[in-house]
Design a protein that fits this description.
With about 400 residues, the chain is α+β, with helices and mostly antiparallel strands. It has helices at about 1-15, 25-40, 90-100, 155-165, 220-230, 300-310, 355-365; strands spanning about 20-25, 55-60, 65-70, 75-90, 105-110, 115-120, 125-130, 145-150, 180-185, 185-195, 195-205, 215-220, 235-245, 255-265, 265-270, 295, 315-325, 325-335, 335-345, 355, 370-375, 385, 395-400. Helix content is about 20%, strand content about 40%. Strands 1, 2, 3, 4, 5, 6, 7, 8, 13, 14 and 15 form an 11-stranded antiparallel β-sheet that branches. It has an 8-stranded antiparallel β-sheet with strand order 12-9-10-11-23-22-21-16. The longest helix is centred in the N-terminal third of the chain and has 16 residues, at about 1-15.
Length: about 400
């Protein structure tokens, strides 16, 4: 037993001796890269696996890869740098040091025998204990993607704006904890729902895209990271699959989506996908044929939601009924009446219906339009929403409330 322990210690000590770095890099470039990677990555503190709290710095051929390798989400980018080496530095002290220095360059040095890396910038320097970068769970065995496509500048952000607000936080229905991608011939559609609301938006691809029966679900934490990184950039998207035996037919393999990689503006965001089946949303989306169309002022809805918030944090039901040259919003909270008139066009009369006013506010704002069109069909039916200039495939659905 003593010999085994000695051998293990020697192996660890030998491994430590290989961890060294000697690099010079722009302070601003490193600061921007670390801040973006750290801010948008998994931020849980892993006391049992501290490598997950580290930023990896790897130098190769005049470039430094700055990366944070999480279990479910991995973000990286390359910046110009001189030197050699590979190291993992705890993200929090590294980001703090970079935020406080103002010289032009950062020198990063760790000899093979040292236990800490020394970072110097101008008159400031720090020593930070490091970890073995090879312990990071970097995904290096990715297969070839099954589907890849490019989205023009700002398109991914535009798609997420209509769907991200409707992602469910209910972990029991984990398959709703993300945005579903549907790929049809030369078309990308995204959908999200929490069971009360649903949002859909689609876009044509510039290059040919083959349809796909698999519908990958990108988890909400990855959507949030992408919103913070992508902004108005052009994005390349790739989906990856693996095979496994079918549950109902173990002798037959089936492909299932496992990962997605998004690249934009020099950053790569790789994420695991939700292993589940997104529901057939078409079964709950009613037809808009023959429905009354009501114009609703988005700003007025926000004002009404703000007023009602002062009366209750839980009771948010509002009834919508026809009024001359518009609609009337009414809410009764603890025997207190709140009402208002919203001017707008409507194509005919309709039966009074109720909705959650906060849901209505968020849904209306997701279109990015001053006016939304509501299409009810009775007090108990789902309400369809569009904007006056909604393109094909853009709509939302809101389930009614009893009032």
């Amino acid at each position: 037993m003593h010999g085994t322990l000695t051998k293990t210690a020697e192996t660890i000590d030998s491994k430590k001796k290989t961890i060294a770095i000697n690099a010079v890099v722009s302070a601003q470039a490193l600061r921007d890269a670390v801040n973006t990677v750290y801010k948008n990555s998994e931020r849980a503190v892993y006391s049992s696996a501290p490598i997950l709290n580290c930023i990896n710095l790897r130098l190769n051929a005049g470039k430094m890869t700055v990366a944070k390798y999480g279990i479910d989400l991995q973000i990286s980018t390359d910046i110009d740098a001189m030197g050699t080496g590979n190291i993992a530095i705890p993200a929090r002290p590294l980001a703090a040091f970079l935020s406080g220095v103002d010289a032009d360059t950062v020198n990063i040095r760790k000899d093979a025998e040292a236990s800490a890396v020394k970072l110097s910038c101008g008159e400031w320097s720090v020593s930070i204990f490091t970890m073995d970068p090879d312990d990071a769970p970097e995904w290096t065995d990715m297969p070839e993607p099954l589907r890849s496509f490019d989205l023009a500048e700002g398109v991914l952000q535009w798609l997420f704006k209509m769907t991200a607000p409707f992602v469910s936080a209910d972990e029991v229905r984990y398959y709703l904890n993300g945005v579903c991608f549907e790929l049809e011939e030369n078309t990308v559609r995204v959908i999200a729902t929490d069971g009360h609301r649903l949002g859909s938006r689609e876009t044509a691809t510039a290059a040919p895209l083959h349809g796909w029966t698999i519908r990958p679900i990108v988890p909400y934490f990855a959507v949030t990271a992408l919103k913070g990184i992508v902004a108005d950039k052009e994005v390349s998207v790739s989906f990856f699959t693996r095979t496994r035996p079918k549950l109902d037919k173990p002798t037959t393999d089936e492909a299932y989506p496992t990962h997605a990689i998004f690249t934009a503006g020099g950053f790569m965001v790789a994420t695991k996908l939700i292993d589940g089946t997104f529901p057939d949303w078409r079964r709950v989306v009613p037809s808009d044929v023959g429905r009354v169309s009501i114009d609703i002022d988005v700003k007025k809805v926000g004002q009404f939601a703000k007023i009602t918030s002062g009366f209750s944090s839980t009771s948010r039901a509002v009834s919508i009924s026809p009024a001359e040259d518009g609609i009337r919003l009414e809410s009764k909270i603890d025997a207190q009446d709140i009402s208002g008139f919203v001017a707008g066009n409507r194509s005919g009369n309709f039966e009074k219906f109720g909705v959650n006013v906060q849901y209505l506010k968020e849904l209306s704002a997701s279109f990015g339009s001053k006016i939304v069109k509501a299409m009810p069909n009775g007090a108990g039916d789902p309400i369809i929403f569009t904007a006056p200039d909604s393109p094909k495939g853009e709509f939302a659905v809101l389930m009614p409330m009893r009032v």
